[in-house]
Automatic annotation (TrEMBL):
Record domain AMP-binding enzyme C-terminal: where: 391-462
Signal peptide location: none
Protein name: Acyl-CoA synthetase (AMP-forming)/AMP-acid ligase II
UniProt domain AMP-dependent synthetase/ligase: residue ranges: 44-339
GO molecular function: medium-chain fatty acid-CoA ligase activity
Any one of the GO BP annotations: fatty acid metabolic process
SUPFAM superfamilies from the UniProt entry: Acetyl-CoA synthetase-like (SSF56801)
Similarity section: Belongs to the ATP-dependent AMP-binding enzyme family.
InterPro entries: AMP-bd_C, AMP-bd_C_sf, AMP-binding_CS, AMP-dep_synth/lig_dom, ANL_N_sf
Amino acid sequence: MLLASLNPAAVAAGADVADAVRIDGVTWSRSDLVGAATSVAERVGGAARVAVLARPTAATVLGVVGALIAGVPVVPVPADVGVAERRHILSDSGAQAWLGEVPEYTDGLPHVPVRLHARSWHRYPEPSPDATALVVYTSGTTGLPKGVLISRRAIAANIDMLAEAWQWSADDTLVHGLPLYHVHGLVLGLLGSLRIGNRFVHTGKPTPHAYAHAVTELGGSLLFGVPTVWSRVVEDGDAARALAPARLLVSGSAPLPVPVFDGLARLSGHQAIERYGSTESLITLSTSAAGERRPGWVGLPLRGVRTRLVGEDGADVAHDGETIGRLHVTSPTLFDGYLNRPDATAEVLGADGWYRTGDVAVVDAGGMHRIVGRESVDLIKSGGFRIGAGEIETVLLGHPGVREAAVVGAPDEDLGQRIVAFVVGDAVPDALIEHVGQQLSAHKRPREVRIVDALPRNAMGKVLKKELQQWV
Ligand code: MLC
Ligand code: AMP
């Protein structure tokens, strides 16, 4: 069973926990969560797919868990989504209803509210492990985000692999304040907790104070964050020291800077676990609770994962800790393709079952991996969010005051990278930032728009992004 701790028979037999899930001021016991989510399942059963506006609320938890109990794939929609992105996600995914919170614009879809106090004790058969659990939209270098088909089998396998690596057990209290529309917060954080049976605390925003409070007041033991979260914890100092009683601090979704790793170790006494993955592959590499944690390195393949480092000529490169190659992975956790996009799927997922991650890495003789960067400058990671330069450029070009646009990721101490747009035209920068937020998501807004006379281009007319990065 995917959400093993929610097995109704076991819960009815007494396997209950009074504070299984805490989110947005609501605390669910495990039996209340089973009863309420099953009542949601009864209302969506038979739907092909449902959209959930994934704000960090109890309604989102019920919507996701209820749909999973009924075997209905969930399309998590970013909490801060804009018009164009929302329309694309709804039409591309074929979602038949909004489940959970009422979005501001329903785009003509029916809305199925969830009732926090309703209960049902109906028993649903466990859906096939091959069935799609989630369709998570994620950015490519160009175009609108693609729907990644994630099976129930992949999620279950990933959580079990991580449980082994991190000695993650029902005794843990997992804490995070990350979005519930991406793998990190949703799959690992929420679904992981409901599979393992540990207590789950969502802090709302992942502020240093909230993390410290969750450890000191709620017994938080296993803490998840993107590097921006950990860097802000270190900046705070007191918050970092307050994390000392925790068991494990885990960082992922973007590179954890070495000074942040060192700062956490100095202040909290914890060497953070670093793990690496993607929406398409789930988490494939990690350091472990019992093994070496090396700043700047993301660890070893999890059980069942194999990796290859491929050189320019297509041959494997040496595992000498220095030679850089393209990272390919194969794993029981890989996605089942991009929804409606066999072309895009074939570009990254070979018939041989290897996923071309788009990241470049080195591996040392002991199998430890270091992520060196991405193959494409057009995939930006900002605050742990994956953002395509192309989708922002397309939206900018849709503004009447923009003739040409090019977007780059500039190095940023807090966010890893920050989005900077170079524009030829007569638009006002703030209006363009606002325009992107309205069309895409708030977190895809450029931090900075620079109006320039011309973009640097090569003889073929292609924008020289590497050169633009020097202009920042
Ligand atoms: C942001 N702001 C802007 C702006 N961008 N204002 C004007 N113009 C812009 N361009 C505003 C925000 O709205 C906010 O306002 C304030 O500035 C601070 O914004 P911020 O710097 O972005 O910080 P914050 O909102 O606190 O967000 C930081 C963060 C967030 C770390 C909480 O980036 C985050 O949740 N990241 C997690 C992403 C994630 O989960 N990725 C996992 C992908 S899965 P105000 O008013 O709100 O303060 C994956 C697989 C794997 O990668 O391996 O895990
Ligand atoms: P996403 O699809 O949002 O899941 O983003 C996946 C990408 O995030 C990966 O392909 C990497 O580029 C990056 N990433 C995730 N974890 C790490 C990490 N620990 N170190 C470096 N990059 C990471």
